[in-house]
Design brief:
Elements lengths: L1 H9 L2 H12 L7 H16 L3 E22 L2 E4 L1 E2 L6 E9 L5 H6 L6 E5 L12 H10 L4 E5 L24 E4 L1 H11 L3 E21 L21
Parallel strand pairs: 4-5, 5-6, 6-7
Antiparallel strand pairs: 1-2, 1-8, 3-7, 4-8
Helix pairs in contact: 2-3
């Protein structure tokens, strides 16, 4: 057992497979890259002696990124579409809602607005608020579009999917902007008209689970899971 544990910690098999996945490139769910990553994972499991390494296909909502911008006056601010955002242009008054806490949404008139919120919550708050929760607060408040501002410096827009299991595609255009772009938007155009534009292709797609068995065949089993898909901008 001690030797097995030592081999596990010193083996480079996991790192080698990670490099293999990264070299594939785009592994968005339902993409050709995700399929190739699943096949590579199946083969890697078979190579180390896993039993019945196989793929299981299932239908998913496909989404392929196009362009995205936030236009203010005669400027086009850098943005990326949040996965599963619908395509379209949405214009409205920019409302910088800060952290985008539930009470922030309750206190603001957001009908027809372009709502911008941060990707974090304040230290004093008692729980984390997920991106989708903030998005659907905006939807329920009648917002025209959603801007998700990174709270981390570095000119990197955040990503993350929208939609629900029942309705995989979001209801209003949603984009991610860097902390720097978000700060500029809030400083120069809060309360002013802006336009959020998203171009994306929505289509049917097929994804894959990878199954394999390791260890003795007993009545009890341990289910170990991971994922091989990845955001396309990684």
């Amino acid at each position: 057992m001690n030797e097995w544990i030592g081999d596990t910690f010193t083996s480079d098999a996991g790192w080698t497979h990670l490099e293999r996945l990264v070299d594939i490139g785009n592994r968005m769910a339902g993409s050709d890259g995700e399929r190739r990553a699943a096949e590579a994972t199946r083969d890697a499991l078979a190579e180390v002696g896993a039993r019945d390494a196989r793929l299981e296909s299932f239908a998913v909502q496909g989404w392929t990124r196009g362009s995205a911008t936030v236009r203010a006056d005669d400027t086009a601010q850098d943005a990326i579409a949040l996965p599963r955002s619908p395509s379209g242009d949405a214009s409205g008054e920019l409302v910088d809602l800060g952290y985008g806490l539930p009470e922030d949404f309750e206190q603001a008139d957001l009908e027809g607005a372009v709502v911008m919120v941060a990707s974090n919550v304040p230290e004093y708050y008692d729980r984390f608020i997920h991106r989708r929760e903030k998005y659907y607060y905006a939807v329920e408040a009648g917002a025209a579009a959603f801007v998700f501002r990174n709270h981390v410096e570095g000119c990197l827009p955040p990503t993350g999917s929208l939609g629900t299991e029942a309705s995989p595609i979001g209801e209003i255009p949603g984009v991610g902007v860097s902390k720097e772009v978000g700060s500029r938007l809030g400083r120069r155009w809060d309360g002013e008209p802006v336009t959020v534009s998203v171009d994306a292709e929505v289509h049917d797609a097929t994804s894959h689970n990878v199954h394999a068995d390791l260890g003795p065949d007993t009545e009890e089993a341990v289910l170990l899971t991971s994922h091989v898909d990845a955001h396309d901008i990684a």
